[in-house]
Amino acid sequence: MGAMNIDSSLASAEHLIAAPARLVVRTTPLDLPSADADPAALLDFLPADSSLSWVRRGDGLVAWGEVARIETTGDAQFSRAESAWGHLLQTMTVHDDVRAPGTGPVAFGSFSFDPSSGAGGVLVVPAVVVGRRGSTAWVTTVTPDTAETGPAQPTLAELLSVGAEPVRGPGRVTYSAGSRTAEEWLDIVTQAVARIRSGALDKVVLAREVVARTAAPVDPRWLLQRLAGSYPGCWTFSVDGMVGATPELLVRSEKGLAISRVLAGTVRRTGDDDADLVHAAHLARSSKDLEEHEYAVSSVARELEPFCTSMNVPEAPFVLHLPNVMHLATDVTGVLDRPGVSSLTLAAALHPSAAVCGTPTLVARDLIREIEGLERARYAGPVGWLGADGDGEWGIALRSAELSPEDPCELRLFAGCGIVAASDPEAELAETEAKLEPMRSALG
Ligand SMILES: C=C(O[C@@H]1C=C(C(=O)O)C=C[C@H]1O)C(=O)O
């Protein structure tokens, strides 16, 4: 399937890519201490000025430098990125001595929530990737192909010296309302509830932003290390200025198996474990949250099904405990029906799920456009990585912030929640505050 796509879009693909004519990709084993008690250890490799990350429980990928970049916008933001990636792969000579998911060529990506957003999508091919999965660790280098023998692979000591520059804190942080004040947002939620009760739609996800100003320029590593330390079960990501720790996996595809972790339905943690257990039990029985959750699971199952020969959609959700909130969660799995269907194709099909958009999808998206008053940009869009064989992992960019490209002391923090007929605007506002907590405490 890939080859046909690539051929037909070769001419346009070339315009999307900024890259040297030919690249050499080399993956070699790395002797790292095992993924031990420190879930942030991979992040220690990152330099201050260029940090790409996809890390969970000490495993994953960190990367820096930028050898190639693919940028897309509009309805075809995913498909055009994917054909450009296919085109770029044809320019690569690959030596992979490790052969595990995430070795060989990889691109880190981040895509806009709404295809009409000017933010568009990006795939970045880094110069150096350090990866770990259980007891296997590796380094991948990507260099322009020159006639001479390429540089030797960096040693562990050389790699560690890259991240030697001390991580700086952002100093005092002040927050202000973004495009809408909290009061205005309550009003927007009230309008949405009225629309739902009128029968126009079943569910819509509405989000708000808070703008943070820091005394010192933000060092993304400061945020990443604190997020990974506090939220080890989430995917701590950094791609092209989007930084966060998401609990929601849009899709992972690996060796013919696809999995999606769907979240919807939330309660705040109180800090009192006994009380939280009672709240978890309530959440698992709350008809409002179960309804909200069911919409999200159905949307994912429906979109994944055409790609699968068999699927497993659990009948009831489990409760996922995070330090700030608890969510209703369902892991949907499927056996893919054709080799080579890429994780980005799957992400494009699953996005936007009802967990971040609503039901029916297009009615909800139009209502978001009409009343939300927020430029989501890449918040709530797919974020993750893609390998040469199409396997990869894509999360939903939640519990996240967008670093301003113009001002190193400014970030936009985002949080949203699913609104259904039974939603109470004040409770939804409180839920957004709880969802802002990871980024707020990461800032310090
Ligand atoms: C939209 C967000 O979260 C989503 C909405 C949820 C809900 O409404 O219960 C739960 C998890 C996410 O799917 C966010 O964190 O910004």
What does this structure look like?
This protein is an alpha+beta fold and 444 residues long. The chain is 30% helix and 33% strand. The strands form two sheets. Strands 2, 3, 4, 6, 9, 10, 11, 12, 13, 14, 20, 23 and 24 form a 13-stranded mixed beta sheet that branches. The longest helix is centred in the last third of the chain and has 19 residues, at 425-443. It has a single domain (2-443), classed as Anthranilate synthase. It is built from eleven helices and 24 strands. A hairpin with a 3-residue loop joins strand 18 (318-321) and strand 19 (325-336). Ligand ISJ is lined by residues 205, 207, 248, 263-266, 327, 355-356, 398-399, 414-418, 435. Ligand ISJ binds at residues 205, 207, 248, 263-266, 327, 355-356, 398-399, 414-418, 435. This is isochorismate synthase. Belongs to the isochorismate synthase family.
Topology:
Blueprint: H1 2-8, H2 10-16, E1 17-18, E2 23-29, E3 52-56, E4 59-64, E5 68-72, H3 77-89, E6 92-96, E7 106-110, E8 121-125, E9 128-133, E10 136-144, H4 156-162, E11 173-177, H5 182-197, E12 203-214, H6 220-230, E13 235-239, E14 242-246, E15 249-254, E16 257-268, H7 273-285, H8 287-304, E17 308-312, E18 318-321, E19 325-336, H9 343-350, E20 358-359, H10 361-372, E21 382-387, E22 392-396, E23 400-403, E24 410-419, H11 425-443
